[in-house]
Records
---
Amino acid sequence: MIHIESDLGEENHMGKSRLEAFSDGVIAIIITIMVLELKVPQGDQLSHISATFPVFLSYVMSFIYVGIYWNNHHHLFHAVGRVNGAILWSNLHLLFWLSIVPFVTAWMGENYHSAWPAALYGFVLMMSGTAYYILTRALIAFHGMDSKIARAVGADFKGKISVLIYLIAIALAFVHTWISIALYVTVAMIWVVPDRRIERVLGD
Amino acid sequence: MIHIESDLGEENHMGKSRLEAFSDGVIAIIITIMVLELKVPQGDQLSHISATFPVFLSYVMSFIYVGIYWNNHHHLFHAVGRVNGAILWSNLHLLFWLSIVPFVTAWMGENYHSAWPAALYGFVLMMSGTAYYILTRALIAFHGMDSKIARAVGADFKGKISVLIYLIAIALAFVHTWISIALYVTVAMIWVVPDRRIERVLGD
Amino acid sequence: MIHIESDLGEENHMGKSRLEAFSDGVIAIIITIMVLELKVPQGDQLSHISATFPVFLSYVMSFIYVGIYWNNHHHLFHAVGRVNGAILWSNLHLLFWLSIVPFVTAWMGENYHSAWPAALYGFVLMMSGTAYYILTRALIAFHGMDSKIARAVGADFKGKISVLIYLIAIALAFVHTWISIALYVTVAMIWVVPDRRIERVLGD
Amino acid sequence: MIHIESDLGEENHMGKSRLEAFSDGVIAIIITIMVLELKVPQGDQLSHISATFPVFLSYVMSFIYVGIYWNNHHHLFHAVGRVNGAILWSNLHLLFWLSIVPFVTAWMGENYHSAWPAALYGFVLMMSGTAYYILTRALIAFHGMDSKIARAVGADFKGKISVLIYLIAIALAFVHTWISIALYVTVAMIWVVPDRRIERVLGD
């Protein structure tokens, strides 16, 4: 390996295009690779395929979650000009937690009556949300508190309520897994349904 | 996660380039990942490889189908300027159904004499066709009825006849799977063979 | 699905950027997915890892072959302006045969003393070469015999000699597989080693 | 295949955009595919998931390593204008060794008490580092000793110390694997932590 002068230093500002292209690539692979966890059934009857239905549903939910992150990532970097080393690593940190999603999706799908898989699924979602938060802080630290990106991120009501719901869902997985799953669906709906009406209902 | 002001609102118009790049990525992965379903035979004889031939043929057909979608997606967004939240989600919905194609391809390839795998294959094709239709409606709703994209989509004869043939093929899978498969090949040919001559024959 | 007016017609000329991006994506996935065929050994000794060495060597050769195709594809489209439906499908046809390479690589690597795997490997290389030839014909038919691309493709000495060597290698696989493998290595060297000196030696 | 006149000759200078896009694609696939090596546990208890923890930790380390290469590749080509055949092949050579990382990561993760897996992991890291060095030499040979890229690469203290540490780690794997792993973590930290302070401590 070779040393590029001050490659993580604040004064070396890069364009965002390769970061966007790399993130798009990783997220596209994550969202598609989950389908590989859908094992082709050994028989040829409806009962064989319906046995894969819980895994299928957990795949649908994770597809929507990864889709939400791609949409939000898309919007977030729309407001961004240049990037530095801290932003590159915060972004890789987010991609790391997202890349764990297919693993926990498969584990929960195959064991949807069990507490630990449902709790771990929520933990990975919570870490992804936290990684996204750290990424926005790195972006604001670099662009300044009165930048376009700082105004766009704002008070971040949805991000904070999501992490709170994840925490509750992880705890309640040990009561009943369906409570956790219902809470994960709720958070997904908060993000998919168009913003302002939901925000008015929940936010004041 | 962080809230980007009105991130799904109609007034937040984004460029199409990242949507195209992300869709290209997902479709490239789907089309390539299908080959992973081709299990390497355990023996070294011609008979061992010829046993994988039905899976191979179902892979060829799905490759052509996904290729058709990529071509059409390419053409569709050629006529598109900007995108909104409804278009992003309609596009993810299409990618979702396409990402199921490798799964049903493998199931049908391994059970090509059985009704349910052939019917489910047709169902996923039909849902993909429907998702494509919804995407065009979202595009027309955003760009207006007299936009370039609305004129390009037009009466959509091929789209409607395809969904009709899929429905017939799903029903006839329970009579004989080869009828269904012949109908899937027919739909693929309608889309691959250059347009106008076929359209003249079928369309009036 | 929706009908885009004359979507495969000659008068609908598209840019080449999405075709390049899609091809890059598919080739990147093919070249990387081959490593998945390298099964992690069950033991922890040198003997366990050295047992995977034949598969590893077949992976190295296929990596170089796919790398050659990416390089040549890169150069070919460098001389290209716009594309039509025939070019899109010729390109998908090439990507189809390349996507089979990981499958035959794994089969040959696991059975390198057997004739059929070595012959099938050569067959897929030959079909890839033929698909590349068809793609160049589609490009020349669209851009004209005195276009930049027609001059760049030229007499195509290397392409023709490659297909001839593949044919000989397929036949000789039934005499001894190492003869075939030596011929595949020879073709790869013809393409990797800088052009003009080799061409002078072989071409006149 | 077709012969493009002097396709590897020095006089045929190409743009770097497709090389960057292809490299981004391959690296994105490598970093994501590693998660496939994380086998979903057969049971639903905490003990089942904690048994995968060593594999998980080796995955984290490899994720950081591949992330470092992506960052450095990003910076390296930032200073590059055009590319030639030697650069294309040097880059493919680097991508080859990086594509082996998921394989050795899984082997080491499953056998973290054994010498050979830890040594082979270090060998692949060392070959990746060497391939990166060859790539920088190809870039400098093409752009000249007083080019921007030559100045950016400089004396390459970090690259040389990394290869030295890898060599020591490979040897010490046969004493105790944890020594090797601690050394791999050390090299990763040298690259992740912002440059100048570390360099001041280690470099003079």
Note: The two ends of chain C are 54 Å apart (CA to CA).
---
Amino acid sequence: MNRPTDDIGNRSDTSRATAFSDSVFAIIITLLVLDLRVPDVPPGRLLSGLLEQWPGYVAYLASYAYVAVVWLNHKSAFNRVKESDRGLHWVNFSVLFTTALLPFPTAVVSDALQENDQQDQRVAVAFYALIGALLCASWLAFFHYLARRRDLLKEEVSERHFPAERVRALVGVALYVVAGLIGYLVAPLAGLVIFVVLPVFYAVTSGGLYQAPLTRRIARRPPASGS
Amino acid sequence: MNRPTDDIGNRSDTSRATAFSDSVFAIIITLLVLDLRVPDVPPGRLLSGLLEQWPGYVAYLASYAYVAVVWLNHKSAFNRVKESDRGLHWVNFSVLFTTALLPFPTAVVSDALQENDQQDQRVAVAFYALIGALLCASWLAFFHYLARRRDLLKEEVSERHFPAERVRALVGVALYVVAGLIGYLVAPLAGLVIFVVLPVFYAVTSGGLYQAPLTRRIARRPPASGS
Amino acid sequence: MNRPTDDIGNRSDTSRATAFSDSVFAIIITLLVLDLRVPDVPPGRLLSGLLEQWPGYVAYLASYAYVAVVWLNHKSAFNRVKESDRGLHWVNFSVLFTTALLPFPTAVVSDALQENDQQDQRVAVAFYALIGALLCASWLAFFHYLARRRDLLKEEVSERHFPAERVRALVGVALYVVAGLIGYLVAPLAGLVIFVVLPVFYAVTSGGLYQAPLTRRIARRPPASGS
Amino acid sequence: MNRPTDDIGNRSDTSRATAFSDSVFAIIITLLVLDLRVPDVPPGRLLSGLLEQWPGYVAYLASYAYVAVVWLNHKSAFNRVKESDRGLHWVNFSVLFTTALLPFPTAVVSDALQENDQQDQRVAVAFYALIGALLCASWLAFFHYLARRRDLLKEEVSERHFPAERVRALVGVALYVVAGLIGYLVAPLAGLVIFVVLPVFYAVTSGGLYQAPLTRRIARRPPASGS
């Protein structure tokens, strides 16, 4: 990795990484709407056709909210980064990769819930939960990388920040696994409801979850004095 | 919401928010063209097939103009914002969300007007009007937020600006509701015409509607002296 | 249009306009590939299926090159703009609008040339030429606006620049009309070949066409001294 | 190419070129997911339907990794560029063009491997290899252009850098040709595996391949002293 010729590009400011990521998130969030289709119904049945697609709207809402939260997380994380290197690009690519997958399980869930097969619905919800958990896992890798690379961060960033974010990502993995199990074992619709609620939960807590007693205990880090 | 660890990211400049929004608008405005499809006609009928799709072209034009106006509004609003916070991001997400929905009712209207069922056409136009009104409602939330958060605005921004914009958004909600009712109760085509005219109206007035006597009376705000 | 409340946003730097336009061009140029589809052929016929789609590849190439030239034109024009106002945004929207249409006639031409109906092929090529001419016409409006708004331009921009660009756009309109006529009256394939050649011609001349004797005579402007 | 009127736009900083390219890469990497479709299976068979699509997932992964590496390459190259001119834009367009093609062979490979026809699978893998090789060839043109245009580069860039990158691109062409031959002559699946491995190989070596003895010998350039 050491380059005798020149060192340009090994480390760089984060402007292109954030611009690229913003574009990716913007496309993902907008592609989701492509799965809202004109219902294929006989003449005169458009209204009921539109209404019967409601699981598609709920799935759309869940994924839209999820990507919105990912964007906020991403913005909040990169605000703390001074310089990016190749490793950071790859953990960033893993976040973009799993986020870009989201329209796929969204379409699967939306389709399955508009059919009547219970087994398919269970599979679909479990599949969505799997991708949701993978997305949280990619954040875990992302935060873990930054938790160990103080040199890439801005000086004023608290030492506790990224270890605490790591906990939040781990909680996310767990929550999507639980949602998948509930959706698979109990009722697919219950899983779908959780998919809508989870991003809201994340949005609300993203400012301060790691100050909560529980996660503080998990992170086992003393409060930084005067940061 | 208070973070003992560090305060980075709670407040930030608006560059990523506008870049992300620009990408979203660009994608929405470009996705619309995906609903202009090669007509599925027997050999030798391409010309008539293309001509018979005219409602699709009108719907495309209406939605394109709408998104263009949304972009101008967005640019004009963020030009006045100094700093964004989490609340502003969420009202911004609500504007992006409703704008991103637009290709869906556009396709529904375009399809229905190419079929012969009057009832479906009424439903389709009413549906478009509903999303159009929701989009104006999301602007209402956006402007309302900024009308109450002077601290996020640039110093030179008139105190009257965002309250007046709020009125304009409210007028928009009303106009789309009226267009929906006309389209549903009177004639779908009349509704479609209004959908094309409305963004034009907005584009023309966006510089000065709130100086008009009517809206001034609604806003009930004395003219700011020397702004 | 005069705003007693504040003047922010009436005039602004061009950064968001160019960022938005870049995103739109990027999406258009990339959407074109969506019309390259896996051929729907019986097993064992993939190779011939891929080869038989060659008109699609040519159409793709023509449109890709066209959008690339539009981007270069756009960049070159905005490099000369100091400030944008609402009127410039609208002529810019008209350029983006006609460019965004391009994937539609591209798909129509690609489809028609893969069928065997001569009449459809003529219509398709004429349709492509129509949109190509409209795109040049939107540039005409764009350059015309800037030719008359010296106050929006950077100081060092030659007075002759945008009037000369106007001529180039007019020549483009004429060339696409001619290509459409040749494609319709003579042979569709000849039209398609012209569509591929035209952007190349534009790319080559975009640096200096207006210095050519012909266009100089049309523009009837004395050479600016010492610009 | 010399313009008596003004010189603006002939040379320019690279900000719009990189912003445009970032958008294009972002769209390509995200469009890939559109080929992951809800399986068209009878009720109750969703799980096996999802599992049987595994070649689609592998193809998606291969192309995603390829685009990610292209983006890293692009970023690394443009970090060394001070100014862009028209020629650089055209070699850049050629890189974007071949990258934008990638979703097409990805879909072809993904489809063919889900069918049972050996001949089609061979064609599909060879087709993917062809586009992969073309993409490396466009990089070759890109690096070749910069290897000869020292005046466009930043001062601190080593003279050896772009000649060495050229070698790396040439190796890439060769590797994709070999992968295509193996896929065509030996086994399609072997080709697919190589498609996944190649970007990883590129990612790992992109920091330092040209320091390796082999490529140094090919490039036949003495080490620059003190760069």
Note: Residues 1-5, 208-227 of chain D have pLDDT under 50 and may be disordered.
